[in-house]
Amino acid sequence: MSSNNFQLSFLKMSLSHFRQHILKYCIAIVSLIFLHWIQVQVPVLIIKLSQNNESINFKELIGHFILVALGIIFFRTLSRWSFFFPARVQQKELRNQLVHMLSLCSPIHWKKYSIGKLYEILISDLEEIRVFFGFALLQIINLIIALVVLFPAMSKVSNDLMWSLFPLGLCFLLFSLSLIFTT
What we know:
This protein is mainly α. The protein has five helices and no strands.
């Protein structure tokens, strides 16, 4: 199979995977938005807690911290599950397809590698596909949402804080370019 055919096959498989699990990915994205919005509230609560103001109701503020903590736990777990579960399903489906296809091959194809070695190679490749659909997509979308939620929150505090994101953006760009040119 040529490299071009493989890229088209992978793209076709990826689109089919996303259509099949669109609801889970939508849940994951919405939960990441809520997660980052809640995490931006933590510094605001800490500032309120650190003020020596008589009008502050500390019991209510502690209740807010507990709700924030529970929200972080809930939305982080939901987002992780919503990204990782479809990736595991995809890995299982592909593994079943590959095992079926291998069982149909004549033993002449197994001269170079034993069946155990073939399974080991295929399972390793499937693990990389699962990591792509699960962890890599989670991190890409996580970064995008974090920046979208973080920019307005930082600009409310101080526009000078926006300059602190420059090194982060530069590192992200350099890391992305290094990945592109080394793979």
